[in-house]
Amino acid sequence: MIDPIYQRVQAALKSLDLTTRPTVLDSLTQQAAANHWSARHFLDELTQTELAASTEHDVLRQMRQACFPFHKTLNEFVFAFQPSVNERQIRDLATLRFAAHAENILFLGPPGVGKTHLAVSLGICAILQGMSVLFYALPDLIQTLAREAKADRLNQRLLTLSRPQLLIIDEMGYFSLDKRSAHFLFQLVSHRYQHGSIILTSHKSYTEWGDVFSDTVLASALLDRLLHHSSTVNIRGSSLRLKDKLKVMSK
Asked: What are 17-30's pLDDT values in tens digits?
């Protein structure tokens, strides 16, 4: 026969939208009996279990909403292969002080050197610290903004993109932007200026951005806002993807 108090506790947990599973509650109850926990000790263990489960649920939800192309942490980055990357600087960026001050981070370097990996890793760090994050490859971002502009919803979308504490924009420079697209990006950066952080990756040096935008004046104005409060990480080295490919081929 099932204990009616046990049933009532389970029903109450469900009604309160708590996530403690029966197996967890059973385990805690057994530990409490075996170790003669006080009611306060048992309640502490129960609430801490709930908090941990709730935090894990929130992190998983934020990870999905961030739309990362992959999940790679800083511990997976091979700093020894990219000596131009200052590990101490990256670890300092992982404290997210820059995001607390709405500062930007720009990763520059040739394709394959780990720019996106570092950007995503910092995004994951931000989520683990309770921050909201959104990732966009620039082509997808421009396509989204163009679609919203056509539907007369551009301002609403810009406001939505201004809400995350950290916005990651990947692949700047892989294709040229026409004036309309460049203006969309300028509006977005202006909306977030001094309000929310941007991490941006590009294989183009700043002097080449005028070619990307087909408008040196607009490129200069965009850079002015991005770089006003920012850190630039220049990565010089071989492609990590090529390294992995060569490793496979050598086997």
From this structure: 666 666 677 888 88
